[in-house]
Amino acid sequence: MELELLLVGGLILLWGLEPWVYYFLCRQRKRSWRACAIEKATLVGLQDLMPFHSFKDKQMMLQYCFEQTKHSVIVDYDKSCLTALENNQEVFIFVDPSNPSNAFLYRMPNRIIAYLFPLIGTLLFTLALT
């Protein structure tokens, strides 16, 4: 029983630490990448015959301007980004200055997983050791 609690606690702890690792890696990337405002977002699907809400792999094409030239990139669908653009809020994408066609859209880590899972994993881990 202790071994199962130890393994489950360790897995939940690692799963909870993953958003923090992603957050710190993105902070390091943002120091060298340039933030550009998104001008236009278009929903992209692999098949034209199906409605967009039924796609499994939802994507969107974002158009941005970097050093007075327009570029576009296809990223995974992000509902918060799309609603912010529909509400005329400014949304930024991070662009590689040496290769402007290489860009990424920063996403906030899931706060429930980031805060709750390390706590649960630590509790299970310590319960297995006692």
Explain how this protein is built:
This protein is an alpha+beta fold and 130 residues long. Helices cover 45% and strands 25% of the residues. The protein has helices at 2-32, 79-86, 111-129, and strands spanning 34-44, 59-66, 69-76, 92-95, 103-104. The termini are close together.
Short overview:
This protein has 130 residues and is of the alpha+beta class. 45% of the residues lie in helices and 25% in strands.
How confident overall, as mean pLDDT? 79
Please provide the ordered H/E string of secondary-structure elements: HEEEHEEH
Find the count of extended strands (DSSP E, 2+ residues).
5
Structural class: alpha+beta
Count of alpha/pi helices:
3
- Shape, principal axes of CA atoms: elongated
The N- to C-terminal Cα distance equals 12 Å
Strand content: 25-35%
User: Rounded to an integer, what's the Rg over CA atoms?
Assistant: 20 Å
- Uncertain stretches: none
Sheet with most strands: 5 strands, antiparallel
Query: Level of helix content?
Result: 40-55%
Lateral arrangement of strands in the main beta sheet: 3-2-1-4-5
For the structure shown, list the relevant keywords:
25% strand; 3 helices; 130 residues; elongated
What is the topology?
Blueprint: H1 2-32, E1 34-44, E2 59-66, E3 69-76, H2 79-86, E4 92-95, E5 103-104, H3 111-129
Antiparallel strand pairs: 1-2, 1-4, 2-3, 4-5
